[in-house]
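RETRY 2/3 - previous attempt timed out on the joint model. Re-submitting the same 805-residue input unchanged.
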Amino acid sequence: MPFSTPHLRVSRLRATRLRVTLAAACALAVAGTAGSALAAEALNVVSWGGAYTKSQVEAYHKPWMEQTGNQINSIDYDGNVAPVKAQVESGNVTWDVVDVELSDAVRLCDEGLLELMPLDELPPAPDGTPAEDDFIQGTLHDCAVATIVWTNIYAYDETQFPDNPPTTIADFFDVESFPGKRGMRKIAKANLEFALMADGVPPADVYDVLSTPEGVDRAFAVLDKIKDHVVWWEAGAQPPQMLADGEVAMTTAYNGRIFNAIAVEDKPFEIVWDGQVWDLDLWVIPKDAPNKDLAWEFVKFSTATEQIARQAEWISYGPARQSSVPLIGSHAEAGIPMGPHMPTAPENFKNALQNDFLWWADHADEMNERFNAWLVQ
Amino acid sequence: MATTPAAPPAAPPDDGVLRTNDGVPLKTTLARVNRRQKLVAVALVLPLLGFILVTFLAPIGMMLFRAVDNPVLQEQIPRTVALLDAEWDGASVPDEAVFATLAEEMIQQYEVREIAKVGTRLNYEQGGLRSLITKTARTIARRGEPPWRETFIAIDERWADPQTWGIIQQAAPRYTLSFFLAALDLRYDWQGDIVEQPEREQIYVFMFGRTLWISGLVTGLCLLLGFPVAYLLATLPMRQSNILMILVLLPFWTSLLVRTTSWIVLLQTEGVINDVLVWVGLVSDEGRIQMIYNQLGTIIAMTHILLPFMVLPIYSVMRTISPSHMRAARSLGATPARAFREVYVPQTMPGVGAGSILVFILSVGYYITPALVGGRTGQLISNFIAYHMQKSLNWGLAAALGTLLLVGVLLLYWLYNRLIGVEKMKFG
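RETRY 2/3 succeeded.
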């Protein structure tokens, strides 16, 4: 066995070296995870994409990242909150902050899928007015803080109607006087309201009428008139695209998207404010979000007077805080004064309807069922 | 043996049994080796079995379960539903005891923010009950006191309506068929009888019908287009048939989304085909043909995408058919058409059957293509399953629709087996 000794020695040496390497690798790995646990306070912030997410990135994310050194991953979605339910129920939450519509915020909150928010911690207005008085009424909820007022409007392509442009919500449903394809969101919400207002129901009575079976029939009868002329859209970025492609002559849309196309992309579009159905966008934090404390810090930061005003300079959505209004200047890129383009500007707000989230929380299931049945037949 | 030490220990008894060197009967050794080999084989397929179990069987089992699972009322207001079952006559307003129990349970659930689950569940049965539950719970949690019956009715008249209580009772059982009923456009009324949904909300039976019809049509079109291609592939000289094969396989390897969006580029009203037609003068600029975002778009795109699934099985069967069969038929006096019809085609049937059932089953569950190009009239049942998974969050109904689809496919498969025989099917 004279040969085995050196061989053994070598292998022991090798083993030692291996152990050292392994230990070093382990140490590195541990240091790596520890380091990343400290530095990678990355928030997953989920929002609607396109021009809207850009306004949030410019007004909220960038300043916050600069100030705190944390990172934000901006994730796009189409407003469908099923993942929140799926994530919370499976105990594998990956979204930290989500931008949702009011009816979804209320519904998710009621079902215990969201973190409660300590609203008294929200920053006061610059003049010291407490947040709960500064926010517009109805924009603060147990699990949600609103940032903006946005609205469903319809817009048309000027070049399609050079002489006799549409001016009222009724014109949208009148394909004889205003020929051309229509774009509409593939959902019952807001479309039923549009239809009734076009049929002469004053905004204040819309939900009373919709609460009767005859009222629902009436709304669908109005929709019937343009059914064969409609191209349906689902994501907010689609309607300006459809208008630009000439796929439709007029389309319902979120007002900020159309404004962006007009101001930044120089498109010949025009917004009709008559019969607008306005709504809120709110921040919510899914229950047991991985970084929920940090998420709340971000929500507080982004709903300060200054930040909300900055956002309104990137997209024409109205601020949820009264103290933000005087701070809003001109569009950050196009230099257009933002005031007249806000849904809440008096000129635009004359015939406006607030989306009734309680009514929709109750009736969304049956209305969508009926809407879907109507759609396929 | 121990008592006779003289005997050599290794000497095997001479009983006619074949033994190995160490004296173990050959049969035993063989069995042992076989067993070891079997174990190795099982160990090799174990990862696959585990994979199938986790990613396939378990989700299907969970889906089947979710379609009948109905835990909400039993978990949230168990004593109320028990009391209703035991004491309520089903026609009048329940007595104070029921109201008091419900009040107590509602306040309890309100405080842990779970009461809206009850509202959401009841809202599937009748719109409006969601707010009734949340409103009542909110009110009584803040300032509610006995007598509960009067308090409830003062909050909302509907608590005095036996129908409300009937619906609660119908929605209570731990396992329910109501999602399956909803998936068939039926429902329980408040007295527990099965009735049809209001006509304007009936949709699923129609959608199942449309799904079967479009799947059948797509299968037929694939067969019509695929059979000649497969025939060419099988009969052309190697050089040409290889090129043709690449033409068949290239789209097959291309991403489904790319192929679908290519069809959008081609077919849309401002798209290539319409542009050409306008340029040639066949249609006017205003009269551009709507070929996409409707049923036609779904049928065209699905037929194209599923075509290789028809061509390949038929081709592989045709390759095995000897040309001498046709020559024999011809030499016995058959015309080419008759020889083809009576000798060649019957031999391709295993491939035709395999291709057809493959295409049909794939198209019954098709989702992404109809979603992208189907518009309003080209949606299939899977798009509604996705809708209930993602938008309405009614997972019970989505599961019931999915289960019905699965049962339908299995039924068709069984029928196919009875009529044609699965063992005759040849994929290649």
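The longest strand of chain A covers residues 269-284. Closing ticket.
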